[in-house]
From TrEMBL:
Catalytic activity: 4,8-dimethylnonanoyl-CoA + (R)-carnitine = O-4,8-dimethylnonanoyl-(R)-carnitine + CoA; octanoyl-CoA + (R)-carnitine = O-octanoyl-(R)-carnitine + CoA
Compartmental location: Peroxisome
Pathway assigned to this chain's UniProt record: Lipid metabolism; fatty acid beta-oxidation
Gene Ontology terms for molecular function: carnitine O-octanoyltransferase activity
InterPro entries named in the record: Carn_acyl_trans, Carn_acyl_trans_N, CAT-like_dom_sf, Cho/carn_acyl_trans, Cho/carn_acyl_trans_2
Domain of life, source organism: Eukaryota
Record has Transport as a keyword: yes
Biased composition (Low complexity): 41-53
Stated name of the protein: Peroxisomal carnitine O-octanoyltransferase
EC number: 2.3.1.137
Family in the record: Belongs to the carnitine/choline acetyltransferase family.
Active site residues according to the UniProt entry: H381
Pfam families per record: Carn_acyltransf
Organism field: Biomphalaria pfeifferi
Amino acid sequence: MFKYFTSSSSRLHFTYIRRIGFTKTTLTAELLTGNKLNKPNSNTESETDSNNNKMSKTVEDIILSKTESTFQYDKDLLTLPVPGLSNTLKKYLASVKVLVTEEEYKKTELIVSQFANGEGKYLHEKFRAKAANKRNWLEEWWEDAAYLELRLPRPLMNMGGPAPYSEDVWPPVADSQIPRAAMCMYYILKYWEFTRKEKHKPMKDSKGRPLCMYQFKRIFNTCAVPGVQKDKLIQYFKTESEGFCPTNVIVISNGHIFSITPFDDKGEILTVPEIQFLLQQVRTRSKLLGLGQGLTYLTAEERTKWAKARNRLVALHPQNYVNLTKIQTSIIAFWLEDGNAGDVSDLANRAILGHGENRWLDKSLSCGVYENGLFVSNADHTPAEGIMMTYVTSYVHLKLRECGGQWQGNQQLRKLEEPELLQFVIDDSLKADIATAKQNYSVLRNIATNEIKVYSKYGKNYCKEKMVKLIKKSENLKLEKKTKKPCYRMAPTYETAPIKQFYHGRTETMRTCTQEAKNWCIAMTDPSVSTSERYRLFKVALKKHNSDFSDACEFKGCDRHLLALWLTAKEEKLPVPQIYLDPSYAKSGGGGNFILSTSCIGFSTVIGGVLPMCENCIGTFYRINDDRLSFFVTTWNADKDTNTSDFAEAICCALDKLKVLIDEQPMTPSSRL
């Protein structure tokens, strides 16, 4: 069935299939699926294989270029345009209409009309004047409003997920933590090196347009620094042509923070056995020292509290500032975790809400490895989208497949610089702050549940064969059972649309709840509607979805423009315009009130997500492979109307129903979508 019941409510939830929301470039298609790659040591059938077992290219053949440099097109990218006010308001009204009553819509329509001819027109002109002098007028506003000004603890905002290495190359094995961590670090550093030397091939979209590569500079050597009112994001990464870049890596074990330098005196990356030797030193020494100071828990605190504690830490002793700088400037952080991890859902929970002793959550990218050799990743969302972390993890995974997870190089050890223990000077006040932070995090760890669900009845191949360009996404329809005749209420849904063809472009919101989608959803739950009519409505909904997605990818949505107008009013010290105070604004998802937050992770073996966007929200993030679809579903534990497992099962039921609908259609030219 399409529906699932919650234990405390008569509401039903419905999922439906929608078009893919990930920009598939030629480069990402080859790298992330593993197509055309040489994988001689992989003896496990992978979902990313494309029926081509005689692959000749290496990963480097796919992602590196000898003729183009990584960032060479960035300066020539299109300036982010200023949307037209009328189009933005038209898009907004269309998204509202399906979510509110007729009476509510009429009120909203009047408010929007008054806004368009009054304060909205004034704010738009003010905004246009400001944007005229910027390559990307959204960039600073977005980072501030969406990330840096928020006071929420980092675990509620960071991205995380399991690394895919255990799917084929590295199943759980006792005492494999250190050798596997060393090999993983080695390949991550290789990716860092490609970026620093600007060897990574510039990405282009299906139209041949160059895409912004700026976020590649923000994966590594980047850190958030807490502020009392607003955090700062500091980027220390530089290419070789730009100058010096720090080369240390932070390794945290048993609560102790170490800095290691995994490079020799010529700037070459150490071998895997040498990195393993350093990591073993860290692990052994950290165990001998007992449990660490617990400073890491402060990074999981409410941001103003962490900022004040950090200020005290810096003022207490100059060595504290030196240590903090080494953490901030480091390439990446590695956590050597205690104990063993379980299945992918267990890893999904550990990635975002695992034990806090070893986590410096301000780092742009961190990797955790457990004693049985299973990995998780955690990343700050401020500097980059989740797909950037997917690129790194996919590269590591494909390299592990090439070598069968075993180091094939030099086994000899040279004389190495010992790991440096970063010992902080703390006083009783900071000890009290740490104790409070530790207690707060123990509560926070139980705030949400994540589950990864794999649907293996079909995937990309079936969709290409049967539905041409149709690929899975999910939508949420709630049915309120108040009378014998059910009434239907759509939930505001957020889908990420990439806009990287623009200078420093990130994303626009696609509002996927449309009247066309609602009509189809209702038909699918009404037994009196014929199969042919359901299929017709499905194609209408899909056409509308594809059109809206294309608009969003060309920056013709409504949310980023509405944010700009609201922030312009704030900067002008004007009252909040009525359009934002209207209940329809929140009901349609405005102000971060999307009940279903979704994003496509791509076509790789990697999956991850973030915690739900708001109260009563469900987060659904997914990857698409040849023969399966995988979902990272997350819900708040305090919300009795949502349930992670039930919603994951509802997705699978919806996919079953859709397959039945499609299979019943004759595959004639007129039926192709």
